Structures are given as C-alpha cells and as structure tokens.
Amino acid sequence: MVWLFVKHFSYSWGPCPWVLISEVWPLSNRAYGIALGASSNWMCNFVVGQITPDLLEDIRYGTFIFFGVMTFLGAIFLWFYVPETKRLTLEEMDVVFGSVGVAMADSQRMREINHQIGLDDALRNMGVGDDIQRSESSGGEKSRSAMGQIEEVDGTA
After folding, report:
1. Is 127 left (phi over 0), alpha (psi -120 to 50) or beta?
2. Which ranges in 12-157 belong to alpha helices (H)?
3. Model confidence pLDDT, tens digit, residues 100-131
C-alpha cells in the first residue's frame, strides 16, 4: 500500500507546490511568495506526519485508502485546474494567472534601476550590453516566445 501512495503522490501533489510557487509569483513578490508556499507545504507535511500514527492505530489500512483517495483527487485537480506553464515567460505567466502587466512593470522598473545605477554602461563597456543597446535603439523589446525563441515584441525582427 505504501508504494502505491508514494507512486501516485510523486506525480500529483509531491512536486506541484514547488513548481507552482516558483512560477506564479512576479519577480517583485517572488521571494515572499516562495517563502509562503514553502512554509505552508512544510506545515501540511508536518500535520500529515502528526496524524498518520493515530490514523494507523484507529483505522489501520483505511489510512492508506484515505491518503490514496486524497492523492487521486489531487491528481484530478491538477489535471483540470492547474494550467500548463512549460516554456512560458514571466510576462506570459501574468496572463495565465490573471495578473496582466506585473512582470512587464517589473522588467521596466529593473531597466530603469539598472540605468540609474550605471549597470547598463558597465555592461556595454565590458561588451556584454551591445544587444541591449541595439534592442533599445530599434524601439522594440526582446521577449521569449512560447517556443523559447527570442523575438522582437513589435514584430520587426
């Protein structure tokens, strides 16, 4: 019974919190969101660890059936309600999770901060920022498409 639980947990609830919390938060709130998600995941694991001995004592093999049913329901929930996020940029994640514009605002703010502290100039002096210069001078921003290829936002490249 244990191996059935572990097998089904490993493709449903097991990795889900770690994948989701690392992708759904915009850069400005990512550290807080990951901390909140990780601590809630650990708390839930702690609760499961605390109640399992009592469940095994009271309902014996029903404990594994209970956890198996919960894992199966979790897999169904993931299949139908959690969107696919493979190969999506942060800007596209905003659209998927309903917070349109947050990542774009974060990236714009980062560009302004990098310019204010002189990071753009330092990178250009090292020869690293040449593609940034070309992109800004052409009037378009580079973005990564859903297939992972870099393209101009305004469609000129």
Report:
1. left
2. 16-23, 30-59, 62-81, 90-97, 102-117, 119-125, 130-137
3. 677 678 778 888 998 899 888 888 888 875 55
Per-residue DSSP letters for 97-121? HT-TTHHHHHHHHHHHHHHHHTHHH
Tell me the mean pLDDT in the region 125-150: 52
pLDDT at position 75 is 80
Q: Mean per-residue pLDDT for 28-44?
A: 89
Which residues, 6 or more positions from 136, have their beta carbon under 8 angstroms from its beta carbon?
none
CB distance 100 to 92 below 8 Å: no
Q: Which residues of 109-131 are buried (b: 16+ CB within 10 A; e: fewer)?
A: eeeeebeeeeebeebeeeeebee
Say yes or no to pLDDT of 156 above 50: no
Helix (H) or strand (E) holding 142: strand 142-144
The pLDDT of residue 50 is: 95
d(CA 97, CA 101): 11
Query: Measuring CA to CA, which residue among 129, 136, 135 is closest to residue 151?
Result: 135
